[in-house]
Amino acid sequence: MKNVSTAAEGLISTRRLFRASHPAVLIVAAALAGCNHAHNADVMATVNSKPIMKAEMDKAYQAQLGDAQQQQQQTPTREQADSLRLNVLRQLIDEEIVEQRATKMNLTATNEEVDAKLAEMKAPYTEDQFNEKLKASNHTLDDVKHDIRRTLTINKLLSKEIDSKITVTDADVANYFNAHKAEFNLIETQYHLAQIQVTSVPSAQPGNLQNSKATNDAEAKKKIQALKNRLDSGEDFGALAMNFSERPETSSSGGDIGFVSESQMKADPAIYTMVTKLKAGQITDILPLLDGQTKKPAGYAIYKLISREPAGQRELSDPRVQQAIRQQLLNGRSQLLKSAFFEMLRDQAKVENFYAEQIFKNEAH
Fold first, then answer.
1. Which one, of 292, 310, 293, lies nearest residue 301 by Cα?
2. What is the rounded distance in angstroms from the CA atom of residue 47 to the CA atom of residue 106?
C-alpha cells in the first residue's frame, strides 16, 4: 500500500534486511529435499508447521508488482513473475521466523500498541480520506493492523536482542575520528537544506502522505502559493513537506535533502543568491524548479536553510562530530548483528517451501 502502508513504515525497512540475495543452491536443495507428503494446495510454505497461505503470498506479490510497474512501466514475463513470487515468499518466511521468536519471548505487540500506531497513521487524513486510500490499495483495516503488529513485534525483538547489546564507547569514537580525520575537514561551505517541491509534470508520482499532485503549471502555481502562505503563517515546514511535497525521495523525511556544497549551489544562481541570504531556520521565496536535463521550467520549490557549515577542520570536541560518529558506529554494528541473528534463526527453524518445490518440478525437465 503505497501511501497507507507508510504508516507501517518499519515494515519496509525491516523487509529490506531480509532481501539479501540467497544462493540459488538453497532453493534447489530445498526442492530436492522437499517432502512428498500431501499438503493443502493453498499452503505455499510452512515455518515450524505454521502455514503461509497462497492468499498472503499473492497479496504481497501484487504490492511489490505494483511498485515495480510504477518504476519500470512493464509487465513481467512468467519467469520474472515466478522469481518475484519466490522472493516475496522468502520474505514472508523470514518474517514468520522472526515473529515466532518474538512470540516465544513474549514480545508480541499489544492491541494498545497497534491502536496507537494506527491512530498516528490516520492522523493526516479524515476518516473518508483514509478509507479511500485503503480501498485504492486493495487493503482492509485488518490488513493494516496485521502489518503494524508484525512490524512493531519485529522491532521489539530487535531492540531487545540487538540494540540493547550494542555499546559505543568514547574511545571507539576517538579512534574512529583519528583514523578518519580528513572526513571532517570541509573544503568548502556546506548548506544543510530542506525543500518543498511542486512539479507541473502530470505523470510524476507524488510520494507524499496526502497523495497530492499538481498536473499542470496553473495547478502547480496555485499549490505552491498556498503552501508558502501556510509557511508564512507559522506552519511546520517538515509537516507540510511530508504531506504535500512532490519529491518522493525527500518528502518522507520532511523535505530534508542533506548538505549541499557551495560550488553545487552556484550551479543555480537564483537558489544560491536566495539561500546565502538566509539565517538558519528561514525559508526562501518561491523559486522556479528547472528540469535537470533540459533546464526548462518544471515546477516550483521553496527551500529552508537548516544550518550552514563553514569550511575547515571539525574537531572531536564538536558534539555534532561525536554524535555523527557514534550513530555511524551504532548503525554498522547493528546491521552486522542483525544479519547474523537472522541467519541463526533461519538455521534453527524448520521450513518447507512447497512453492519452490512446485517451480522446480515444473521447470526442471
1. 292
2. 19
Q: Which long-range contacts (CB under 8 A, 24 or more apart) does 79-83 make?
A: 82/359
pTM of the model: 0.59
Which residue bears the cell 535533502?
A: 257
Number of H helices, E strands in the chain: 15, 9
Cα–Cα distance for residue pair 358/365, rounded to 1 Å: 12
Q: What is the CB neighbour count within 10 angstroms for residue 230? A: 15
Question: Does residue 273 contact residue 284 with C-beta atoms inside 8 Å?
Answer: no
Nearest of 209, 254, 211 to residue 231 by alpha carbon: 254
3 and 129 Cβ atoms separated by less than 8 Å: no
Q: For residue range 305-332, list pLDDT tens digits in order.
A: 999 999 999 999 999 899 989 988 998 9
Pick the CATH number of 4-164+336-363 from 3.40.190.10, 1.10.4030.10, 1.10.357.10, 3.40.1190.10: 1.10.4030.10
Grid coordinates belonging to 298: 518544471
- DSSP at 216: S
Could you report the per-residue pLDDT of 73-99, keeping only the tens digit for each?
467 788 888 888 999 999 899 989 999
Pairing outcome for strands 351-353 and 43-47: antiparallel
**Cβ–Cβ under 8 Å, residues 354 and 52:** no
The answer to whether 275 touches 303, Cβ cutoff 8 Å, is: yes
**Residue 343, C-alpha cell as written in the block:** 541467519
pLDDT tier, 48 (very low <50, low <70, confident <90, very high otherwise): very high
CATH class for the region spanning 188-310? alpha beta
Q: Residue 53: which H helix or E strand, with range?
A: strand 50-53
